[in-house]
Design a protein that fits this description.
The chain has a six-stranded mixed sheet with strand order 2-10-9-4-5-6, with no helix packed on it. The chain is mostly beta strands. The mean pLDDT is 94. The relative contact order is 0.32. The protein contains no helices and ten strands.
Length: 127
């Protein structure tokens, strides 16, 4: 089963930037899978932020992050990225990546291919 490890979170000021990474386990061929990034705030449901298709041609974003976030992938490095610019305090939360069945919006957790979630990476946007 695919194992994913997220990193790159941290503290950013409003208007700042962070780049999240999601690295897949060595024994998987990343090319076949679409991936999604999700955000979760304690007490709330996990919500989809962005996704990318298996060949990287199709990228989708939740409306509030369009123009500020950019998803990408490097299959040779088995890594999916989420570049987050002009961050807002409301985007504080734990960010997770997972393989998904299809890249679509709204992106919901039930689209996760195996429903396996890593530890995530904490993003805090605060002055």
């Amino acid at each position: 089963q695919l194992q994913l490890v997220e990193s790159g979170g941290g503290l950013a000021q409003p208007g700042g930037s962070l780049r999240l990474s999601c690295v897949a386990s060595d024994d998987i061929v990343l090319d076949y899978f679409a991936f999604g990034w999700f955000r979760q705030v304690p007490g709330n449901e996990r919500e989809g932020v962005s996704c990318i298709s298996s060949e990287g041609k199709d990228k989708k974003y939740e409306d509030s992050v369009k123009g500020r976030f950019a998803i990408s992938r490097d299959d040779a490095k088995k890594t999916v990225y989420l570049q987050m610019n002009n961050l807002e305090p409301e985007e504080t939360g734990i960010y997770y990546c997972t393989a998904i069945l299809v890249c679509m919006m709204p992106l919901t957790p039930d689209i996760s291919r195996w429903d396996n979630w890593g530890q995530g990476t904490q993003v805090t946007v605060s002055s």
